[in-house]
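Fold Annotation — chain and its backbone

Encoding — discrete vocabulary of local shapes
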Amino acid sequence: MANLVVGQSGGPSGVINSSLAGVFVRAKERGFDKIYGMRNGIQGLLFERLVDLKEIIDKSYEVELLKKTPAAFLGSCRFKLPEIDEARGTYERIFEILDKRDIKAFIYIGGNDSMDTIRKLSDYGKMVGSDIRFIGAPKTIDNDLAETDHTPGYGSAAKYIATSIKECILDEIVYSTKKTIYIMEIMGRNAGWLTAAAALSRGEDCDGPDAIYLPEVDFDLEKFRNKVAALLQKKNNVMIAVSEGIHLADGTFVCEMSREDVAVDAFGHKQMGGTAAFLAAYCEKEFGVKTRPIELSTLQRCAAHISSYTDVQEAFSSGAKAVEACCDGRTGLMTTLVREQNEPYVCNVGLCDVHNVSNVERCVPHEWITDDGSNVSDEFIAYARPLILGENLPVMINGLPAHLVLQKEVDELESRNNPQE
């Protein structure tokens, strides 16, 4: 049988390697001769940086360890493919590499920008009459992809965020004897799914955050001040969750209010960060009380030690479905998660046209946000709760989680294939 290639792109997640494991296991079952992995996504492919995963992952326990390993095992990238009519040479180069390796199935695990890559490659393939199949497997902790109920990676990040804010709330109650305002900044850019997950900390032993601000609603600094003032009248400690991407009515990100220059990536996305620090400084000046900004940053997307078992299984199934789609002769599609019911939770894997996904951003419905814009509803809780259930416990060695690391494996493989004389 012909060969398959798989790559990972964009910001990693706690279960991105579970999708890779799903691709690998199903591709072996379907009899692909070689299962290539792109080092650093499409950018690495252009330099023919490919590894044969069959030579690296040859034991069943290594597959299980891969599913417990955070970040992108193959290495990621943020490389924007130009439009076809702008750089046909780039596409000719990619297809030349794929044809040389007899690759008939191309699977890309990633978010919105990665699905845009699948769209362009599948369109070019159809244009030139190629029989290579291009399928996307979704991955993003932001949960902002269209056409799917949720995305692999979101449930685990939501579990980590809810756990972290719950533990911080307990810490503030026990430790702080002075009035203190805690502001936790959570990833998400233009979509507030991750920040909303802070509400999952509510329960019999925790009231959850006092306020939650999402980017779906314009942020009003005066209303924020009034909200905090009212909270300080009622309690000693205030916990607020804010999205990194909250913005004023004119579109200005709150994080830009304390920074003159904001860098952008290859896709034109502004680099987030600093929202909690700005609001903490603002509150300290306004109220004269102690403030503590908490920025989870990279931790929320790499905390595989507390990943959701539901998320791990769905990510694996998503990768496996991508292989099946290629074997069925399909192209230009993305695998999706289709929720059948909530209680008990049932979710299946489907497919959708990638053209309906790339460059489309799905946000939290406004009906799931309270009227004053400072919290989320029980409908959101019902949606998100099943996604964080179950544990994927790590394998512990010397007191720490064990992971499968590609560079070590590749170095050992090259050493075996090229012994010193």
Observations:
- The domain at 3-152+306-358+391-412 is CATH 3.40.50.450 (Rossmann fold).
